[in-house]
Amino acid sequence: MPGSASTTHRPEGLIERLRSAAADGGEAKLKVLRELKNQIIGNRTKKLSYIKLGAVPSVVSILSSASSSVDCLLIQCAATIGSFACGVDAGVKAVLDAGAFPHLINLLSHSNEKVVDAGARALKMIYQSKAAPKYDFFQHKNIEFLISLLDKNNENVTGLGASIITHSCETNNEQKILADAGVLKKLINLLQGTTSQRDASLESFATIIKQNPEVITKFVGPENSTTFGSLLELTKDRYPRTRLLACICLTLIKNATSSSSSSSSSSSYLQSVGIRTKLILVLLELVDDFGQVGDEALFTLSSFIEHEEDLQKLAFEANTVDKLCHQMQKESLQAKRLEGIFTTLGNLCSNLEPCRSIVLQSPKALIIITDALTHTTTDVRVAACICLKNVSRSVKYLSAGHFMTEAVIMPVIQLLYDASTSVQVAALCTVSNLVVDFRTHKSLFIQSGGVKQLVELSKSMDSTVRLNAVWALRNLMFLVDSRCKEEIFMDLKLFPLTRLISDSNACVQEQALGLVCNLVNGPVDSIMYLFTEGLLLNTVGRELRRASKPQVLVQAMYVMCNVASGKEFEKEAVMQQLVNEDDNNQSIIVTLLQSDVASLRTAVVWTVVNLSIPTGAGALTRVVKLRNAGVVSQLKNMVNDPCLDVKLRVRTALGQSMTFGDFST
User: Fold this and answer.
1) Which SUPFAM superfamilies match (predicted)?
2) Is 460 helix (H, G, I), strand (E, B) or coil?
């Protein structure tokens, strides 16, 4: 009857048949399982529909009750479960919630290789998801199970073992346990297998060696040179995915060994210009793939050249910048591709002016980068911001006001309001770069409301945001004219600034004191900001007496140095902060002159020079106080200071003090 036939083909009808199949013979179960599997393969919508109708528990129920001798039924159950799990996290959750995992594991020990293969395939589908169970490698039984998988001849089973490693291995200790158990060697052996085995093994290999120089040195070092050779050979493989994975492994080896004190033949081998150039060229070729391989190739290339100017030069010589500038102009680029392009360009422009020039001379590159600051994807906004920051390190273009335009400044300011902390931090770093050093172009940023948001972010509970906000304010204050300085100070206000100087984070303190130093630098009237209600100078003096971090003390001392360059009133105020008239306690200025930190000694001696200038009504009195506090005696002990800057300033200070007579006893 047409009505009945129609009902049985609807999802509800199929589910009803599935539930009743348990009471029927094997053929009925097989038929409904095949029909269900065919319905959901490659169809996400139908998968979700059947999951909601409760199909998965019914399939797992058939699997759990099936006789181990009914091989075809076991295979169909495993295949159907794998189909539900493939590419759909909701499917993985439904499969795990229904208790399928242990039943699938049991299939791996079945006598029929086809059943084993079906179970392994289903489990591999599960392990494509982050929701898959993690194995505890601190339990010996789990290591034994893993090794048993890697020892099989079945590529799906060995692939499952590799997938478990990639999914579950997260810490250095887990990496070491796996390597010491011989897992790494087994993965290396599998590099000689099928394409599927090679790729799975390379991914797992990368997981075990990532940021672990100890493991790399032991297993890819002098006694295992064939491993490095195998990886290098795989960069020539016919399959792009394999070439990419081999490059990823070699990049991880290079990064881990170059950032550690350990040495190995692999790290030495990667010093070869020929091999480095070859890897860059392989990755550039892979970038032409506009799928996942090309996206990952960009990030691998970026990681390979990061922090190493020599590698950045090799990439530049390989026309990487031109290639990426051309690629970014293509229409409808996916977010991942844009992020990769901006990240790689950002690294290339971090040190090399020729790279920045190519980007800035490209007709559309800067427009595309600034447009990406408003992209809907957070990671793209971050990457574009960092790219802009590094491109704007060009002194030539920055000093010419090339970036201080509304088209650049306004979207950067908007990012300071972004909901993402990572975007805010990237924007703050970019602002720090854009506003530094060139006084004639800062007014646009101030007039556009940028200062108010910097001040708000300087109050953030997140220390990274707070640090970078203060850093940006410090750079904005550098060499700014008096009118802009007044506007910034009015927005910043006194009490928030004193809190920043006393911040619990020493890095924030350093930047806050640098901000104050820039505030009082310049015309003599700038120093008066420190005497607003007397709070700022007292706060700086208090930090000099209680801070322990050299970078904080140096910045605080330079504040005193700048103030000491002022009029008599300012010089006397500095004397009160630095010179203790109590003979029983050593003055802080003498303690700081005895520091092991050359930059701190330099700042203190500069301050003494400013205080001892032999002009002004109070000059003699100050020099006498400095002598009585032991400053002059300490300076005499420093005439042969190992730091040339200190030595020169000491001679100047002593020469000025001698104007009033020799105080030697």
Assistant:
1) ARM repeat
2) coil
